[in-house]
Amino acid sequence: MSYHVLKAGGKLVMFKSPRIKSLKPSTFLKKTMKLSNKDVIGSGGYGTVYKVVINDCISFAVKRLIRLSAEQDRGFERELEAMGDIKHRNIVTLHGYYTAPQYNLLIYELMPNGSLDSLLHGKSTNKMVLDWPSRYKIAVGTARGISYLHHDCIPHIIHRDIKSSNILLDHNLMLEIFRYRKSNSKRRCLQLWCCITGAPNGKKPTDEAFVEEGTKLVTWVKSVVQEKREEYVIDNSLTDCPADEINLVFSIALMCLEPEPSTRPTMAEVLKMLEQIRPEEFRSRT
Ligand SMILES: Nc1ncnc2c1ncn2[C@@H]1O[C@H](COP(=O)(O)OP(=O)(O)OP(=O)(O)O)[C@@H](O)[C@H]1O
C-alpha cells in the first residue's frame, strides 16, 4: 500500500508504514528540496546520500540519483523492484521514492550509526573501537540478512556486493544491510570476511600493502593461516576477548573462503554455526 503525490513535475510514492503515518508529503518534499552539501552522509557509485530530519521521531536517508543515462534509470527501477517486497529486520526499509525529470530519490530508513566501514576506517570523529560482542552481533545480523535473501525470498536473491560500506548500523549497533541485485540462481555462501573479524589488524580489504605485495586480503589471510600465524589476522584492538569465540568465528569465515562454491557452507549453515557460539544471546527471542 502506498500513496502518491504529484508535485512540481515529480511524483512522490510513500509506502504505508505505522512509523511514518503522521508524515505529510508536503513536509517531506519541502525538506528534500532544500538539501545541501552539509546534509550529505555518504556517496556511492550511483548517487549521493543525504540525511533528512523531519522531527525527533522521523528521519530518513535519501539517496539522490541523477538521471543521466538509461542505465541509471534502470538501476533505480531495479532497486525499487527488488526492495519493494523485502521486509526483514536486518534489511533497511525502503519508505518510498520520488521521481522527477532531473533526478530520482530513494527514501530509506536512516541508520544512525552509519556504515561499518566508517566505524572501522572512517575519520577519527566517526571511528570507534568495536568490542567483540558488537562485532559478533554484527556478524550474526549480516548472516541473518543474507540468509533471508538466499533462502527465504522467492526467487532467491544474491546480493553480489556485500562490503562494510553496505553494512549499516542502528542505535544498538544492530546491523542492517541493503542494496542487492536480483538473481534467480542460488549461490552458496558469500564472503563474510570483513564483517566477521572487522578488518584484520586494521587493514582494509583494499589496503595499499596488498597492492604493493600483489596480493589480496583473502590471499594474505590464507597464507598467514598456512604459516600458523593466525594472531596476525585478528584485529589487535580486540583485547580481553574470548579467544575461543574469536577462533570459532574465524574458522567459519575460513570455510566461506573455500574456492570451490559447493564446499562452502550455505548462509543458513553459516548463521546456525554463528548462533551456536553464543546461544544465550538468542534464547530469549525464541
Ligand atoms: N539508510 C542509511 N542510513 C545511514 N547511512 C546511509 C544509509 N544509506 C547509505 N548511507 C551512507 O551512504 C553511503 C553510501 O551509500 P550507497 O548506497 O550510495 O553506497 P554503495 O552501496 O556503496 O553504492 P553503490 O553500490 O551504489 O556504488 C553508505 O556507505 C553509508 O555511509
From TrEMBL:
Keywords: ATP-binding, Kinase, Nucleotide-binding, Serine/threonine-protein kinase, Transferase. Its main location: membrane. Residues 35-286 form the Protein kinase domain. It is a single-pass type I membrane protein. Coiled coil: none annotated. It is found in: Membrane. ATP binds at residue 63. Gene3D superfamilies: Transferase(Phosphotransferase) domain 1 (1.10.510.10). It comes from the Eukaryota. The keyword Signal does not apply. PROSITE patterns: PROTEIN_KINASE_ATP, PROTEIN_KINASE_DOM, PROTEIN_KINASE_ST. The keyword Transport does not apply. Pfam families: Pkinase. Belongs to the protein kinase superfamily. This is Protein kinase domain-containing protein.
